[in-house]
């Protein structure tokens, strides 16, 4: 109805047609055989896990304990197991009197890194020196952490801004839009449903008002799930692609608004 703009509607119609599901039947395959057969990959061959024998064939607890005890005795004999108090007893038979002289060799003091305490000797680790390079490394790590936190905050901000712009665009709010497309859509639909010719005369342009208001009668609005997309915008023309459902059936229409006497009026409707 009203004005028609093929240069605007044709691309929208092509886009809508591409988005609709195809109704063509798939071509039948060869009846004499099935589809291609693909060989399955070779299954890996894993060896059997070792079998743990249960029974009397293995060494018993006594044998293991005896072996450990014998090893401990031999180790003590080699390392001088007769030492007492953390020192080493040396027997010297070469003295003039023929007597045995025993002396205890104490462990190294703090200079040697050992500490002879009641429980034995222990080695103390030297304290690591905190240098200028360590300080620079700490500062560099701190800067990296701050940069990562700022990056995450920036991503959250950009995401919030994108969502906000999307919501405003869906609501029809934006600097490039002369009015709210969704609000204008419902205003016109409610005027049609109420058969309000006086209001429609204000909302509709000269090329549409007579055709749209002829033999109009009140009816019930059955539209839902309205969304829109701007397909043309200039100082005197504003075309919107509306998508909505009418009693569960999807409908795509392009509304052509035009500026007449300082007011934006609907001057054409094309169904695609």
What key phrases describe this protein's structure?
272 residues, alpha+beta, Nuclear Transport Factor 2, Chain: A, 4-stranded antiparallel β-sheet, two-stranded antiparallel sheet, 6 helices
| Approximate helicity band | 25-40%
Given helix and strand content, the structural type is alpha+beta
Total count of strands: 8
Query: If you consult CATH, what is the topology of one domain?
Result: Nuclear Transport Factor 2, Chain: A
**Which H/E pattern describes the elements?**
HHEEEEHHHHEEEE
Low-confidence parts: 27-41, 54-58, 60-65, 81-114
Shape: elongated
Strand neighbour order, sheet with most strands: 5-6-7-8
Q: Report the end-to-end length measured between terminal Cα atoms.
A: 12 Å
Molecular structure report:
The chain is of the alpha+beta class and 272 residues long. It has a domain of 104 residues: Roll (Nuclear Transport Factor 2, Chain: A). The protein is built from 6 helices and 8 strands. The strands form 3 sheets. It has a 4-stranded antiparallel beta sheet, covered by helices on one side. A two-stranded antiparallel ribbon has the order 1-2. The longest helix is centred in the middle third of the chain and has 40 residues. The protein is elongated. About 22% of the residues have low confidence.
């Amino acid at each position: 109805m009203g004005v028609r703009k093929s240069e605007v509607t044709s691309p929208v119609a092509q886009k809508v047609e591409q988005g609709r599901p195809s109704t063509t039947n798939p071509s039948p395959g060869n009846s004499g055989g099935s589809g291609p057969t693909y060989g399955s990959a070779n299954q890996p061959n894993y060896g059997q896990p070792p079998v743990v024998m249960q029974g009397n064939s293995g060494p018993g607890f006594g044998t293991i304990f005896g072996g450990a005890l014998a090893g401990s005795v031999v180790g003590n004999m080699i390392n001088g197991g007769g030492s007492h108090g953390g020192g080493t007893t040396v027997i010297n038979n070469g003295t003039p009197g023929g007597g045995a002289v025993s002396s205890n060799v104490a462990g190294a003091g703090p200079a040697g890194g050992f500490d002879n305490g009641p429980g034995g000797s222990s080695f103390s680790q030297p304290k690591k020196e905190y240098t200028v390079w360590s300080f620079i490394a700490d500062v560099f790590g701190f800067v990296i952490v701050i940069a990562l936190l700022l990056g995450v905050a920036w991503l959250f901000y950009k995401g919030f801004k994108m969502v906000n712009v999307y919501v405003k665009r869906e609501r029809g709010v934006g600097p490039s839009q002369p009015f709210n497309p969704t609000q204008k859509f419902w205003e016109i639909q409610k005027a049609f449903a109420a058969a309000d010719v006086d209001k429609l005369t204000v909302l509709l342009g000269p090329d549409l008002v007579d055709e749209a208001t002829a033999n109009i009668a009140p009816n019930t609005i059955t539209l839902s799930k309205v969304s829109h997309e701007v397909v043309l915008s200039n100082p005197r023309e504003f075309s919107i692609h509306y998508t909505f459902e009418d009693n569960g059936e999807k409908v795509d229409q392009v509304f052509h608004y035009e500026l007449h006497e300082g007011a934006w009026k609907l001057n054409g409707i094309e169904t695609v």
